[in-house]
Amino acid sequence: MSEARIDRLLAAALHQAIADLLPMRLEFYESYLRPRGWREDAVNLAPISAVLSFLRHEDGDTHDAVMVQAAAYASTWWMAGQPWHVRTGGRLLPRWMRLRQVGTLAKRHFEASYRGTKVKVHVRRGRLDLEIRGSIFCSSREQARDAQCRYYLAFAEALVAQDAWPHRGTLVACRALGGECCVVRLEAQDQ
Ligand SMILES: [Zn+2]
Q1: Among 172, 147, 167, residue whose Cα is nearest residue 156
Q2: How far is CA 176 from the centre of its chain?
């Protein structure tokens, strides 16, 4: 059995976000994130886990800022590969249908990023819940004070950023805080 693999898009998005926000530390991180290896479809899990752990030990809000930036890149690249009707869904679809579409898009990206991740999509009225099992961001044995799957929330938020309705995003639960799974919630706000 080969080592667990991480999709190249997630690795490339993390690399680009670190280059933007931590340019002085890029060389250090590149010893784990090796762009040359990305000609393959996937990179190994172990170096990515190491990068995530180092990011958690950076100062202040650096970890969350890198996750938000990486998710912004990933969502742009992910959407670029979608057909026209999906890319314009936010302006054309009824609210519940759009939330279901966003849920499906996020589920596909999260599950493609790492085979051990499984996502269930729940849509009720103006609310989308993504129930994420096997998050690669939240398996750390280190004591966590905050939810660690900021990337998942930021990715979902980025998908709806251009929509006709504003949304409020929250991390309702996180495995790193003792939850059974991680839950990302998007709620459509009435204007
Ligand atoms: Zn989590």
Answers
A1: 167
A2: 15
Whichever domain contains 104, its CATH number is 3.90.1520.10
Residue with tokens 């660690």: 148
Query: 92 CA distance to ligand 1 centroid (A)?
Result: 32
For 121, the token pair is 């999509």
**Global pTM value:** 0.92
Residue 174 Cα to ligand 1 midpoint, Å, equals 4
- Statement: residue 78 has pLDDT above 90: yes
Asked if pLDDT for residue 38 goes beyond 60, the answer is no
Within 8 A by CB and 6+ apart from 132, the residues are: 110, 117, 118, 119, 149, 152, 181, 182, 183, 184
Parallel, antiparallel, or unpaired for β 182-188 and 167-173?
A: antiparallel
> Any residues with CB less than 8 A from the CB of 61 and at least 6 apart, and which?
none
**pLDDT tens-digit readout, 98-136:** 999 999 999 999 999 998 999 999 999 889 999 999 999
**Domain range enclosing 55:** 5-188
pLDDT digits (tens, 9 = 90+) for 139-187: 866 667 889 999 999 999 999 998 888 899 999 999 999 889 999 999 9
* CA 148 to ligand 1 centroid distance, Å: 5
At 17, is the secondary structure helix, strand, or coil?
A: helix
What is the helix, strand, coil percentage profile of the chain, to 5?
50, 20, 30
In the chain, the number of structural domains is 1
